[in-house]
Structure of mannose-1-phosphate guanylyltransferase:
Amino acid sequence: MIRPVILCGGSGTRLWPASRESMPKQFSRLVSEHSSTFQDTARRVTDETTFGRLSVLTHTDARFIVAEQLAEARIPADILLEPERRDSAAAVAVATLHAARTDPQAVVLILAADHVIGDTRAFVAAVEAAAVGARAGHIMTLGIEPTQPATAYGYIHPGEAIPDAPGTYKIARFVEKPDRHGAERLIAEGAVWNSGYFLFRADVMLDELEAHAPAVLSAARAALENAARDLDFVRLDADAFAQAPKTSIDYAVMERTRHAGVLPVSFAWSDVGTWDAVWSVLAQDESGNAVRGRVELIETRGSLVHSEGEQVTAVVGLEDVVVVSTPDAVLVSSKARSGEVKTLVERLRAKAYPEADAHRRMYRPWGWYQRIDIGERFQVKRIMVTPGGRLSLQKHYHRAEHWVVVKGTAEVTLNERVVLVHENEAIYLPIGSMHRLSNPGKIPLELIEVQVGSYTGEDDIIRVEDVYGR
């Protein structure tokens, strides 16, 4: 059985403002109305005749989003939490050690959470073919047949054929992201795109990490050995994990090992790393436009217009542009320069714009809240609590709160009392009162919260008890 591992610790800043630190692109529904790319990736490796139990490595801040989306897709998994981002080498080392606990020669498949693949059957067939090379001791990757001289991808030069693994080749050399002329030359020479998927035997990868990146392996081993169980998560030891050098698995192992192999494949693939790439994978109308949400176009061609929320986004007389409209931020860019959005986000962070990283809607393990309005001495939020969800038992020193239930039934703890608040009913929570909100019903609970006081920041929360361990 092949042990699939999804790495989903990235922040996806090139797809701002739809993708932000608080809800990165792999968890958003940017290319599908029904599921995220993370969920699609997980579903791709559920065939029990080929794949074993899924493992997911993610940053600790995304743990509840990962758990919720896996539960929604009904896919069981081991979820390992990185206390900080140390790039892919440390993540691969932890995943390999985790798999080796049950089988030192387990075949491990490393997957990115944010890729779009058009043909799942072709993907699974490619993985099975590459697994032949992996079982023979090679560290395999899938090489995507180029469809254009892309400058955003790395390239791989296939070398001599690998014996007893049909269709696979040893890797002659890796080439970093070239300019357009270099990309055209590489394609003419038979190079393929580096997909970032890896397939290997656990013992082989551990030997190569020991040889080429011993500090990474040592830190990963200590982080896993000293990990703690937290609800349904495995929380890696923070001090040990922080000792891992911050480097990619490509640089740490793949560019140094003599066991690197590649299987060229031709199925449709994209890492949807920029808005231009999102446009390319979405359905387009007769004018080459791809639209999402409430959008109206007049004499517009070759463009992507993405609108979130209730507002209408209208575009007139433009060509080859990206327009992304969210409730609190709007991006307008030429399609050709959409890859520069990451630089824009860095500038917003430098100027302390909260919109650089935080969405107006913030997801929590119990549901979400969304800011409606904020001003001096007040803030208004819309709150949704999933059935069975419970907020922490808490109090505030600087604000009182008014809760108005608009859907469902709220169970409210207020000091020593527990009361039920139904639709179109309200309750007042004085400053300093101990309180908790729960949803005891079978439908989502929605309410409007009005905060009034000298300070309404999120850090004015004193948690006394929390079922989610925060």
About this structure: Residues 2-270 form a domain with the Spore Coat Polysaccharide Biosynthesis Protein SpsA; Chain A fold (CATH 3.90.550.10). The chain has eleven helices and 30 strands. Residues 120-135 form the longest helix (16 residues).
